[in-house]
Amino acid sequence: TTSTSAAARPPPIHVAEVSDFEGLCYALEALVGSDGFTCRSRVHDIVIAPSTPDSYRAVVRYLAGNKFSYHTYQLQTERSYRVVMRGLNHRAPVGKIRTDIENQGHQVRGITNVLDSRTKRPLPLFFIDLEPAANNADIFDVSRVFFSEVRIEEPYRSRSTVQCTRCQEYQHTKGYCNRPPRCVRCGGGHESSTCLKTRETPATCALCGGDHPANYKGCQVYKELQERSRPGQPRGDVSSGRARPVAAVPVPTPMHVADAPPRVHQTPQSASPAARSLGPRPLHPPKPTPTRPSTLKKATPSKTPPPTQKMKLPSKAPSTQNEAPSRVPSRTATPARTSRPQRGNPIPQPSTENPYTNLFQPELLIKFIAEFKSLANGLMSALTSLSNILSSFTQTHTNIPPYEYQ
Question: Compositional bias (Pro residues) spans (predicted)?
Answer without folding.
Answer: 282-291
